[in-house]
């Protein structure tokens, strides 16, 4: 039976920062990919972006001195995570081309609830009512921001693909928690990029090939750059941490979505959206506050135990 590595000291804070960084990177990627998806099929997008990403990460791996660890890509859990990531990427990119970015983001942010529900029975984490309340508040805030309910939100193959993507994403993140901490994060990132790129290339014969323009190539190169950074940050976010604590910080993606909407599409939030953003940020800050309180209690208990009677 698999056993998750213990939670490292101060790792939760590192995980929270990494999660927020990953969300910023992924939202940037989503914006770029949605632009390109107007003209290119999803498999081609994934293959081109994956090729750029794999080259970047391989260079990073060499520069970081981890070439000797390249054999660890064959680790069963690392390979499983990479396969799940490939499915997540294909389903998400296939759906985002046919759905408003707000609707698919709304569906995708169900993931923290699934992870919180799974972290108890699978990881033995204690999820109290305060953490559940913070997750719920963040979810409500997200709904106020994206206001799902438009035509086609609950119908169609795109929504089905988005929901499947959510399920595989939750499983992927749980698998990440069980990966041997001695395996360098950059090795896991390389495996992910290669698997995703190969999956996309395998879909090209079924979807066809459209010759990309220089603009398409440039946008996909930029997307690959932020995906590499986002994948690396996402892996860091789930290594040696309490998954149910870090996962709700996915909701910060909606803050980045608002920034993207204003700067790229000229869309300003309405009053309900600002309330939602406040709930998302407030829920995240409250969760961080509770973590600080728990750390103080733990330190006090350790000091009391170490003090001779």
Determine the strand fraction and express it as a percent band.
Answer: under 5%
Sketch the topology as an H/E string, one letter per element: HHHHHHHHHHHH
Distance between the termini: 40 Å
Decide which structural class fits the backbone: mainly alpha
Which spans have pLDDT < 50 for at least 5 consecutive residues?
A: none
Task: Please give the number of β-strands.
Answer: 0
What kind of sheet is the major sheet?
none
Quick one: overall form? Answer: globular
Helix content: over 70%
What is the tally of helical segments?
Answer: 12
Kindly report the average pLDDT value: 81
Q: What Rg do the Cα atoms give?
A: 20 Å
In short:
By secondary structure, the protein is mainly alpha-helical. 74% of the residues lie in helices and 0% in strands.
Features of the shown structure:
single chain; 309 residues; mainly alpha; globular
Describe the structure.
- Helix content is 74%, strand content 0%.
- With 309 residues, the chain is an all-alpha fold.
- The longest helix is centred in the last third of the chain and has 36 residues, at 271-306.
- The N and C termini lie far apart (40 Å).
- The relative contact order is 0.21.
């Amino acid at each position: 039976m698999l056993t998750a590595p213990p939670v490292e000291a101060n790792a939760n804070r590192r995980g929270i920062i990494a999660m927020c960084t990953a969300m910023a990177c992924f939202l940037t990627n989503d914006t770029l990919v949605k632009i390109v998806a107007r003209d290119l099929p999803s498999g081609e997008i994934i293959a081109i972006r994956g090729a750029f990403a794999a080259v970047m990460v391989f260079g990073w791996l060499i520069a970081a001195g981890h070439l000797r660890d390249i054999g660890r890509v064959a680790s069963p859990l690392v390979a499983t995570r990479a396969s799940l990531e490939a499915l997540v990427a294909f389903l998400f990119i296939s759906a985002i081309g046919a759905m408003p970015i707000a609707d698919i983001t709304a569906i995708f942010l169900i993931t923290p609830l699934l992870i919180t529900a799974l972290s108890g029975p699978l990881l033995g984490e204690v999820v109290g009512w305060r953490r559940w309340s913070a997750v719920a508040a963040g979810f409500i805030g997200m709904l106020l921001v994206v206001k799902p309910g438009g035509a086609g939100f609950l119908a169609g193959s795109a929504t089905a693909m988005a929901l499947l993507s959510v399920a595989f994403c939750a499983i992927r993140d749980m698998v990440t928690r069980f990966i041997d901490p001695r395996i360098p994060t950059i090795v896991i990132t390389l495996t992910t990029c290669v698997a995703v790129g190969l999956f996309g290339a395998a879909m090209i014969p079924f979807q066809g090939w459209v010759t990309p323009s220089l603009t398409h190539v440039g946008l996909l190169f930029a997307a690959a750059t932020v995906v590499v950074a986002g994948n690396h940050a996402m892996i860091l976010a789930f290594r040696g941490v309490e998954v149910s604590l870090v996962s709700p910080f996915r909701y910060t993606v909606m803050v980045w979505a608002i920034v993207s909407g204003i700067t790229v599409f000229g869309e300003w939030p309405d009053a309900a959206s600002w309330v939602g953003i406040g709930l998302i940020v407030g829920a995240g800050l409250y969760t961080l506050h509770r973590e600080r309180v728990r750390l103080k209690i733990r330190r006090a208990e350790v000091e009391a135990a170490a003090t001779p009677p």
